[in-house]
Amino acid sequence: MEWFESLAPHWVWLALGFFLAAAEILVPGYFLMWLAGAALVTGVIAFALPIGIPLQIVAFAMLSIGAVFLGRNYLRANPVEDADPKMNRRGMRLAGETAIVVTAIDGGTGRVKHGDSEWLAKGCDAQVGEKVRISGSDGAVLIVEKI
């Protein structure tokens, strides 16, 4: 523990800032980066000004609250848009494609084949072999309509 006590406080703040930034990369959520920024700024303040550890903790707390508040408002005003909103939603990616009815759609449910996959389907009644257009999905169930 002696080495920790001999460590300058600004190095601890800078290390904490980099640790929190790395944690934000591993556990994304747009929260830890504001705390990382506050820790890095506190480290710079501790290096530049001769202030005690209690005042450094107060500075970190105030900077953290301010950074989280400003960051939350910024992200609310400028939301992060998905590069591909249909990513990991294979059923939605098939919207507009055609499929062939494999099990008759009777009473609103049946099965269709698209490519090499069979899907549960719901929509208007259709007979085996008919072509239908995929209009969307509800989880793993494709919503189809007659062509």
Number of strands: 5
- Give the DSSP E fraction (strand runs of 2 or more residues): 15-25%
Rg is 28 Å
- Name the overall outline: rod-shaped
Give the helix/strand class.
alpha+beta
Uncertain spans: none
What is the terminal-to-terminal distance? 75 Å
Order of helices and strands: HHHHHEEEEE
- Approximately how much helix is present in the residues? 40-55%
Largest sheet: 5 strands, mixed, barrel
Number of helices: 5
Q: For the largest beta sheet, what order do the strands appear in spatially?
A: 1-2-3-5-4
Rounded mean pLDDT is 89
Summary keywords:
147 residues; alpha+beta; 5 helices; 5 strands; 24% strand; rod-shaped
Characterise the protein shown here:
The protein has about 150 residues and is of the alpha+beta class. It is about 45% helix and about 25% strand. It has 5 helices and 5 strands, in the order αααααβββββ. It has helices at about 1-5, 10-25, 30-50, 55-75, 90-95, and strands at about 100-105, 110-115, 115-125, 130-140, 140-145. The chain has a 5-stranded mixed barrel. It is rod-shaped. About 20% of the residues are buried.
Structural topology:
Layout: H1 2-6, H2 9-26, H3 32-48, H4 53-77, H5 90-93, E1 98-106, E2 109-114, E3 117-123, E4 131-138, E5 141-146
Parallel strand pairs: 3-5
Antiparallel strand pairs: 1-2, 1-4, 2-3, 4-5
